[in-house]
Structure to design on (413 residues):
């Protein structure tokens, strides 16, 4: 059977997937009729990225690819961005919104993977395993209980008590740890976890401190020499959030001085672009540090789920216009629109646009079957379902595009 005629041929819609995104994403696009999927195992250098994105309608990235305002300016056809991960700090979200481009992510699919790794690392650090393992690799043998502790009864301090932080807390309580947390927002404590008065109290009481904040202007270098100095002597630090959160030189110094007893670091201020590039860090060669190559969320379970979840959000936006769960865009949840033509109008949120939109339908005597509108401070997104033929819908779209303040229009049938 020939594919159903659509407003834009699906095989002409280019999907660009970078950074080794799960094959599940490709399958999800193909199953929905999107056959033009281009994949790359790595992130691309900026000049290649700009070329590859120039004719892409959808782009999928992970934490490595930087979609700056400059890169986005070259992406004239881009309809939406999928971050196949949790963090969205690698995208200029405001620039994307003002280009009429919603950004989607997978807010929960790798949460558990990060939490399990962090808990394992807390146990390893409390037992002094990283340095013991390093010694064994060199043919050494230091069988001793000195400096080696059970996790049971120790205090875990969680900075950033969001999805990952709370999961880490629940797992840690299962081991019999005391859990304290600090967050900038008031949070519901799970289990017996307790919010500390402030970060200083958490630092003064924790045997292991683990960071689970997003990368923001406020978290940039939030964990430096002053915070490390306030940790209990010999306490451990885990960072699986973002490399910019910790002053890495200060951490190296605190490890060398022995004030910090050990660390586990998954994220770095400068990460290699791909698996062929070297890691450069002041932490290299320090035995009591577990170094991992940003694999907190890299389990097959998490990646398989993320591939399906984010691809499905992009397909839904393409087919139906729904922006539900977009991180930078007014969220509009839309019903199916079988039997009607759907017009999408993304505009700057300035007075008068909606009345101009409605005038267009009134002037033509076209009845509106359904209308959906959401706005935020920058952008308005209005979706109009009408009973029209293909030619009328195309003409209506052109009229909508001529409204001052319009950022982008689409027609779906
Ligand atoms: N290593 C890896 O592979 C992975 C790393 N991540 C990183 O972990 C971060 C956290 O992920 P989720 O828990 O899902 O995010 P989330 O948004 O659910 O939780 C973050 C928490 O941090 C709090 N927060 C923000 N600024 C803060 C500040 N200045 N001080 C204290 N608390 C603050 C927020 O209020 C929120 O409760 C992500 O943004 C991402 O950067 C996420 C997944 C995998
Ligand atoms: O989900 C996140 O925010 C992560 O940091 C995981 O990033 P990745 O997909 O492994 O590049």
């Amino acid at each position: 059977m020939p594919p159903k005629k659509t407003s834009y041929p699906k095989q002409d819609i280019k999907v660009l997937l970078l950074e080794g995104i799960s094959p599940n994403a490709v399958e999800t696009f193909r199953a929905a009729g999107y056959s033009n999927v281009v994949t790359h195992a790595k992130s691309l250098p900026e000049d290649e990225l700009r070329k590859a994105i120039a004719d892409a309608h959808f782009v999928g990235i992970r934490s490595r690819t930087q979609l700056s305002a400059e890169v986005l300016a070259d992406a004239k056809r881009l309809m939406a961005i999928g971050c196949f991960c949790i963090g969205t700090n690698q995208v200029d979200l405001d620039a994307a919104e003002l280009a009429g481009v919603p950004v989607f992510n997978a807010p929960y699919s790798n949460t558990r993977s990060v939490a399990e790794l962090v808990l394992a690392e807390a146990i390893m650090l409390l037992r002094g395993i990283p340095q013991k393992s390093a010694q064994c690799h060199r043919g050494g043998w230091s069988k001793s209980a000195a400096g080696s502790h059970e996790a049971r009864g120790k205090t875990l301090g969680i900075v950033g008590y969001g999805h990952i932080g709370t999961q880490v807390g629940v797992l840690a309580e299962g081991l019999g740890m005391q859990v304290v947390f600090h967050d900038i927002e008031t949070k519901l404590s799970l289990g017996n976890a307790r919010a500390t008065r402030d970060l200083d109290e958490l630092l003064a009481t924790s045997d292991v401190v683990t960071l689970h904040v997003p990368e923001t202007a406020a978290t940039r270098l939030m964990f430096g020499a002053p915070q490390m100095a306030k940790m209990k002597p010999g306490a451990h630090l885990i960072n699986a959030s973002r490399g910019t959160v910790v002053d890495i030189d200060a951490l190296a110094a605190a490890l060398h001085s022995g004030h910090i007893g050990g660390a586990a670091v998954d994220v770095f201020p400068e990460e290699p672009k791909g698996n062929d590039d070297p890691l450069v860090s002041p932490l290299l060669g320090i035995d009591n540090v577990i170094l991992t190559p940003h694999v907190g969320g890299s389990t097959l379970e998490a990646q398989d789920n993320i591939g399906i979840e984010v691809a499905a959000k992009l397909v839904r936006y393409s087919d139906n216009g729904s922006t539900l769960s977009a991180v930078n865009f007014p969220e509009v949840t839309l019903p199916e629109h079988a039997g009607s033509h759907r017009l999408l109008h993304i505009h700057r949120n300035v007075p008068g646009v909606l009345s101009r939109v409605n005038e267009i339908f009134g002037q033509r005597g076209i009845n509106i079957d359904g209308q959906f509108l959401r706005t935020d401070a920058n952008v308005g997104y209005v979706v109009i379902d009408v009973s029209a033929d293909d030619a009328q819908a195309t003409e209506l779209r052109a009229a909508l595009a001529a409204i001052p303040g319009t950022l982008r229009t689409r027609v779906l049938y």
